[in-house]
Amino acid sequence: MKNQMLCSVIVPAYNCEHTLVQSIESVLCQTYSNLEVLIVNDCSTDGTLQVIQTLAEQDARIRCIALASNGGVAKARNRAFAEARGTYCAFLDSDDIWVPEKLETQIALLQDGKSDFTYSSYSFIDGKGKVIGQAKMVPSSCSISDILKENFILCSTVVIKTKFCKTYAMDGAYAHEDMVYWLTLLQAGCKAVGCETVLAFYRIYNQNRSGNKAKAAKDRWIVYRRFLKLNMISSLWYFLSYTAYGIRKYSKLKKI
């Protein structure tokens, strides 16, 4: 832990009693060990709170933050932003998994002074943790235009300098709150660097592959028109690109 600056790991938790332990274990096994783990219980109705409390009893680096009312992942992350004490913040969803070298690799990128937040490539796993399809390989750099065509930044791969989390909150008014956040940071002049190495596993279920495609498309259109205020032609261009990338991405996945 010599010369390691504190990293705050932010984990929104809602009804995730069956996956949370594995996700947190992947944090505690990091080669970068100077951590605090902020797990925000968003008024879960299953045994999630009890799981968090047990984990906190077993490792002093874990803190349980309980919201008074259910507010969604943006509100949960914003609460953790306020509580974070680290130099860096790392995002992790409660059913995703990291490889052991993830934080060490990405924090090294931040320490070279060329970026304000980083993201990485990732693999897909099914509900049982089995790797499926082909890994998503990300580019080493990105622009606002790139994100509008395809949001290749998975939330669970992001590590960011905490000062930006203290300055910019996530906007829960948009269903694609993560994409809106990356756009907000890029609009503010933040520099993003991608790590092409696969450093995380994204858990994907039948329902988030096929159940809400129409809603996702509508929500993406809202980001173009309402958040960015793009004209109709620009919105259609980016929407068609988003559709093409989406078809290509999920066609590479084996059926679950």
Q: What attributes does this structure have?
A:
single chain; 256 residues; alpha/beta; nine-stranded mixed β-sheet; 10 helices; 21% strand; globular
Mean pLDDT, all residues:
92
Helix/strand order? EHEHEHEEHEEHEHHEHHH
By secondary-structure content and strand pairing, the structural class works out as alpha/beta
- Oligomeric state of the chains? single chain
Q: What is the beta-strand fraction?
A: 15-25%
Given as residue ranges, the uncertain stretches (5+ residues, pLDDT < 50) are none
Shape: globular
Integer-rounded radius of gyration: 18 Å
Helical stretch count?
Answer: 10
List how many beta strands DSSP finds: 9
Taking the sheet with the most strands, its summary is: 9 strands, mixed
Work out the helicity level. 40-55%
Intertermini distance: 40 Å
Report what the structure shows.
By secondary structure, the chain is α/β, with parallel strands linked by helices. 40% of the residues lie in helices and 21% in strands. It has helices at residues 20-28, 48-58, 73-83, 102-111, 144-149, 162-167, 177-187, 207-210, 213-227, 232-251; strands at residues 7-13, 35-41, 62-66, 88-91, 97-98, 117-125, 131-136, 159-161, 192-203. Strands 1, 2, 3, 4, 5, 6, 7, 8 and 9 form a nine-stranded mixed β-sheet that branches. It starts with 6 loop residues before the first strand and ends in a 5-residue tail after the last helix. 35% of the residues are buried. The model has no long low-confidence stretch (mean pLDDT 92).
